[in-house]
Amino acid sequence: MTTEAHTQSTEVAAPTGVILTDVAAVKVKALIEQEGRDDLRLRIAVQPGGCSGLRYQLFFDERSLDGDVVNDFDGVGVVVDRMSAPYLAGATIDFADRIDAQGFTIDNPNAQNSCACGDSFH
User: Cα separation of 19 and 108, whole Å?
Assistant: First the structure.
């Protein structure tokens, strides 16, 4: 029984999905309200490419695909397909609204390299 408890605490400590910051959740919720629909969720997908090895796609989707990983952040559904999930474990999605940067940003500990071109992060 002690071994099982230890195993459970190890699993809980490991990041299992994406993290949507409060600021990003508010922005996503506002964008969905602008669409006038209540069936949309934020879908995040990863494709190979870009200078860090990963290219991200963020879009609103009403579909449910087999194997989707769904997380709820204050009423905002975030969906990751099963192929992208391992690449996004522990990634943080934020929203920047500053003079030097505007839009959603992804801080992904799984990215191989970082770069200044920005292709991999939009």
Answer: 10
Q: Is 104 helix (H, G, I), strand (E, B) or coil?
A: strand
Q: Which residues of 2-27 are buried (b: 16+ CB within 10 A; e: fewer)?
A: eeeeeeeeeeeeeeebbbbeeebbeb
pLDDT in tens, 29-51: 999 999 998 899 999 999 877 66
Convert 19-76 into a string of H (helix), E (strand) and C (coil).
EECHHHHHHHHHHHHHHCCCCCEEEEEEEECCCCCEEEEEEEECCCCCCCEEEEECCE
What's the token pair of residue 6? Answer: 């230890």
Distance CA 35, CA 94 (A): 20
Residue 117 makes CB contacts below 8 A (sequence gap 6+) with 50, 51
Query: How many beta carbons lie within 10 A of that of residue 95, not counting itself?
Result: 19
106: three-class secondary structure by DSSP: strand
Distance CA 44, CA 79 (A): 6
